[in-house]
């Protein structure tokens, strides 16, 4: 099936034509100099996008979840204790993966409507005088709930507690769309995938690792074979790869970072913030609420919208797909059926967002919700016409 409609799922995201074309390469010999011209700019570009001077960028043929696995198996040892909060479907799944690798997860169970519970992290870090906690996990942006957390605040807690734990951050739905400051926050491992902020097909797990993380990888004892960051780091300086690289995707990654840096990271983040505020204005014009409770934690990449009690939110997703060929995200895990999600990250413009808002209105009205057609669109239009930056710049 082919449709020209954009998707409004929080990944995979819409692909700009220029990036689709960049991934479509004739076969090249990845041991030739031509590969160096792809790999090196891709790595350097990612380093800039995560705002780091000297992070080791490692790219595996995998997805974001593969990035979780690579992070924990390279940096930790069996039985190591890690601190994590279960505050959404993605943090839940990361915790599950840690447990399956034999890590001891000190899990904070917290409200899915709230950001990461800093006070609880603080308590546990300060109580851990023996430094048993080897790593602290943070999901920067919970894609299931549209709640973002404050990574910098976790860094401050670690510093205040003089705690040496590694700071591992899932940035799969934030990196390249929302501000991410690897060096300033002293993040030890930042994880993302190709199919979200980088606007590419799925297929790459992208990691940024601090010198401290690379050091930890030397002595970590969990089994790793295919996902060995040491082997990657060893071969990269000569533009080698431990196995056959996904050359087309890497060329896409090089091009994607050129697009993002060409637009300017600040402009990329502002564009996401502006589009998100239009979506939020639409949601309140509909008389609905976001699942996220605190304004300071509203995500700029995905909005989870609560539907009235007794209404199956997933029916909106199913109906919009069947009748209008437009994809929204269903609620996951604890919020299945209670929310539907509007993804607004990656290659997204004001005009595209308006089409998604309009479609959501039609679907909800079709299903009998008391939505006045045009109400959300009008609310978003007011935001966009008052804040629009030059559209030309985003037209790539
Ligand atoms: C999409 C996503 C993942 C999983 O990534 P995959 O590429 O599907 O493996 C993990 N964490 C977050 C926050 C995500 O949005």
TrEMBL record:
The superkingdom listed in its UniProt entry is: Bacteria
Q: Which cofactor does it need?
A: pyridoxal 5'-phosphate
Query: Which regions form coiled coils?
Result: none
Show the stretches that span the lipid bilayer: none
Any Pfam family the entry gives: Aminotran_5
GO MF: alanine-glyoxylate transaminase activity; L-serine-glyoxylate transaminase activity; L-serine-pyruvate transaminase activity
Q: In which pathway does it act?
A: One-carbon metabolism; formaldehyde assimilation via serine pathway
GO annotation (BP), single: glycine biosynthetic process, by transamination of glyoxylate
- Specify whether Cytoplasm is a keyword of the entry: no
| Sites bearing N6-(pyridoxal phosphate)lysine, chain numbering | 196
Name the positions where substrate binds. 341
* Domain Aminotransferase class V intervals: 28-297
Provide the catalytic activity annotation: glyoxylate + L-serine = 3-hydroxypyruvate + glycine
Q: What is this protein called?
A: Serine--glyoxylate aminotransferase
């Amino acid at each position: 099936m082919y449709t020209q409609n954009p998707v409004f799922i929080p990944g995979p995201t819409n692909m700009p034509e220029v990036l689709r074309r960049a991934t479509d390469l004739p076969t090249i010999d990845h041991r030739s100099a031509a590969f160096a011209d792809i790999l090196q700019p891709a790595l350097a570009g990612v380093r800039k996008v995560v705002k780091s001077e000297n992070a080791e960028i490692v790219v595996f043929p995998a997805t974001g979840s593969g990035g979780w696995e690579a992070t924990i198996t390279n940096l930790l040892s069996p039985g190591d204790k890690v601190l994590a909060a279960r505050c959404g479907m993605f943090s839940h799944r990361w915790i599950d993966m840690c447990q399956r690798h034999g890590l001891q997860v000190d899990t904070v169970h917290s409200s899915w409507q709230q950001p990461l519970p800093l006070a609880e992290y603080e308590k546990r870090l300060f109580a851990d005088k023996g430094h048993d906690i080897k790593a602290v996990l943070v999901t920067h942006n919970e894609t299931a709930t549209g709640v973002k957390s404050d990574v910098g605040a976790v860094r401050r807690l670690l510093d205040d507690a003089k705690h040496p734990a590694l700071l591992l951050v899932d940035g799969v739905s934030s990196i390249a769309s929302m501000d991410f400051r690897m060096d300033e926050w002293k993040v030890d491992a930042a994880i993302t995938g190709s199919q979200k902020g980088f606007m590419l097909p799925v297929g790459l797990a992208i990691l940024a690792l601090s010198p401290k993380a690379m050091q930890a990888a030397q002595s970590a004892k969990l089994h790793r074979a295919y996902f060995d960051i040491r082997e990657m780091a060893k071969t990269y300086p000569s533009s080698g790869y431990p196995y056959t690289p996904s050359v087309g995707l890497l060329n896409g990654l090089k091009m994607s970072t050129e697009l993002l840096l060409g637009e300017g990271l600040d402009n990329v983040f502002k564009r996401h913030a502006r589009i998100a505020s239009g979506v939020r204005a639409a949601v309140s014009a509909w008389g609905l609420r976001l699942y996220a409770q605190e304004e300071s934690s509203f995500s700029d990449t995905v909005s989870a919208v609560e539907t009235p009690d007794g209404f199956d939110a997933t029916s909106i997703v199913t109906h919009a797909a069947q009748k209008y060929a437009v994809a929204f995200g269903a609620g996951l895990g604890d919020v299945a059926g209670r929310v539907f999600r509007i993804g607004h990250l990656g290659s997204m413009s004001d005009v595209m967002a308006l089409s998604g808002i309009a479609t959501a209105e039609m679907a909800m009205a079709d299903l009998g919700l008391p939505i006045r057609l045009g109400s959300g669109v009008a609310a978003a239009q007011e935001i966009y016409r008052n804040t629009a930056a030059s559209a030309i710049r985003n037209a790539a």
